[in-house]
Amino acid sequence: MYRKLIFLTGLCTIMIALACEKQTLMGSPEAESLQLEALRQEVDSLAAQYSCADVEQWRFTAIGEKACGGPAGFIAYSTQMDTTAFLIKVATYTELQKEYNRKWDVVSDCMLLLPPDRIICEGGKPKLVWDEPVTEEQ
């Protein structure tokens, strides 16, 4: 029950944040792109505040949206942070990038990005790892 309440609260917060962000994202593609970049830097900065020593304290999520659909990338985050607020900020960024792509007819490659297989800690920072696919010899 408590998880449902947290989820609904987070969802409402996303909707409010998106409504507020929509009002500020007006103007030229360059100005809106700068606003998106600033929001992405904020997200990256929040994630970078935590040192990676125990990989069990790290998760990842999709971030951004390509013009053809699908995530633009993935970002690692620590479970020690306020994950609800962080994921709301990521969702806001993703929705705004989706709107930007639609509004300005952005073109991108349509290559599907697969999620990473795991996270490792390297030099105190999380690193997303994609394992090489196993190929069968015919």
UniProtKB/TrEMBL annotation:
Protein name according to UniProt: Uncharacterized protein
Cleaved signal peptide residues: 1-19
Naturally occurring in which organism (per UniProt): Parapedobacter koreensis
UniProt KW keywords: Signal
